[in-house]
Amino acid sequence: MVVDFAMLLLIAIPSALAGAWAASAIVKRRLEKVEARSTAAAHETAARVNEMEADRARMAAILSGMVEGVLVVDGDGRLRLVNDAARQMLNLEDHLLGRHYVEAVRQPGVVQQLGAALKGEHRPPIEVPLDRGSSATSGPRIFRAQATPASVEGGGAVLVLHDISDLRRVDRVRRDFVANVSHELRTPLTAVRGYVEALMEEPANAQQRKKFLEVIDRHTGRMERLVRDLLRLARLDAQQEIAELHTVDVASLFRSASADLSERIEKQRIHVDVRVEPAAAVIDADSTKMHDALKNLIENAVNYSAEGGRIELAARVEDGKVLLSVGDEGPGVPEADLGRVFERFYRVDKSRTRDPGGTGLGLSIVRHLVELHGGRVHAENRREGGAVFTIALPHRTRSSPNRGH
Ligand code: ADP
After folding, report:
1. 293 contacts: CB under 8 Å, gap ≥ 6
2. Ligand 1 center–CA 324 separation, angstroms
3. Residue with the nearest Cα to atom 2 of ligand 1?
């Protein structure tokens, strides 16, 4: 009996052990599979998280690089995202995320837009003046704000802000320009019409007729000059004129530009001095365009010179630039107007009733022509009295590849 039992044990134990071993091997395999699966899941999750982080970083980079302001609120009206542009435009403090938009945003129009969008309304954009960034020269800054309901679970709204100050400025410049042109044309046109009517209605003697026709001639001439200058400015604006640079002799350039005005120079007994330093004797320029620019400056100098006055045309090299200057002994330009005389239609003497002769466009054409050469032009007053206009051009060396004939 004891032996039987011992035998049974001898048989049962190894088989039980074998069974247990087999069972544990199955469990182990299963565990390994589960482990493998969970490792794969963990890798996948990590990859997803990385991807999401990368997406988030990409999104943050895009949003912070955007010129448009973007502000996102959740369904409870709490700020979830504000990019740098929105922060600047709305003049918002830092660390606002999580705050209610009504506490953070101070512009009533923007608050209303966000409130409407949170209720699911699509409103047209509004225009809001900017708190910051306005200056006397650039004019007021203004932005367009539009909030739209966010199409996500739980609601919310997205506000987009565009800075439209430059568009408004361009629009204002265009409107001022049209108003100026109309004004400039009206004066001579009214005069021409008046004298034509007088000629038709009143019997005039030959002397009167001649006087009337002379006035008509003067005013039509002025309109012609205005239209010519406007067309030239339009061509320059549209970049239809390019500078073809060749080697140009500066003294001949000065001579030919003043020769075009010789009649007036002689009539006003004006002395023209030409001083050209050897280093500035030749320049690379488009001779026709530089001739036009210099002629314009010399014409102004003649206009503002008294009888018997002196005009100085000089060329020198300074700080690696060739400086071509036209100086006169006239009244000069008031300091406050020095920077503005190159603007279209800008005149120191604003009254249009006095016939100014010029179109008010000459210096803006000069600036365009000089800039075509990669140069700049500026106005100063001379210590001894009178104005001096200086064109600064890049000084090219003799081996310059731009040099032609
Ligand atoms: P305009 O046709 O009136 O001469 P410009 O554009 O040539 O127009 O000049 C603009 C303004 O700059 C002039 O109206 C004048 O007030 C001022 N200006 C230009 N040149 C001179 C100068 N040599 N001396 C004094 N003022 C000048």
Report:
1. 365, 366, 369, 370, 377, 391
2. 18
3. 358
Element at 319 (helix H, strand E): none
Per-residue pLDDT tens digits for 167-224: 988 998 899 999 999 989 998 999 999 999 999 987 778 888 899 999 999 999 999 9
3-state secondary structure labels for all residues of 65-124: HCCCEEEEEECCCEEEEECHHHHHHCCCCCCCCCCEHHHHCCCHHHHHHHHHHHCCCCCC
In this structure, what DSSP letter does residue 220 have? H
Which residue has its alpha carbon closest to ligand 1 atom 25?
A: 332
Query: Is 333 close to ligand 1, i.e. is its CB under 6 Å away?
Result: yes
Kindly state if the Cβ of 300 falls inside 6 Å of ligand 1.
yes
User: How many C-beta atoms surround the C-beta of residue 102 within 10 A?
Assistant: 12
Determine whether the shortest distance from the Cβ of 236 to ligand 1 is under 6 A. no
Nearest to 361 by CA among 258, 234, 233: 233
Encode pLDDT of 352-384 as tens digits.
444 556 789 999 999 999 999 999 999 999 999
* Distance from C-alpha of 174 to C-alpha of 311, rounded to nearest angstrom: 36
| Ligand 1 centroid, distance to 351 Cα (angstroms) | 13
Tell me how far apart the alpha carbons of residues 212 and 195 are, in angstroms, rounded to a whole number.
6
CA of 265 relative to ligand 1 center, distance in Å: 17
Report DSSP state, residue 280.
G
Question: Nearest C-alpha to atom 12 of ligand 1 is from which residue?
Answer: 341
Determine the Cα–Cα distance for residues 78 and 85; give it in Å rounded to an integer.
19
CA distance 63 to 60: 5
Distances (CA, A) of 285 to 97, 242, 244, 259, 378: 59, 11, 7, 19, 18
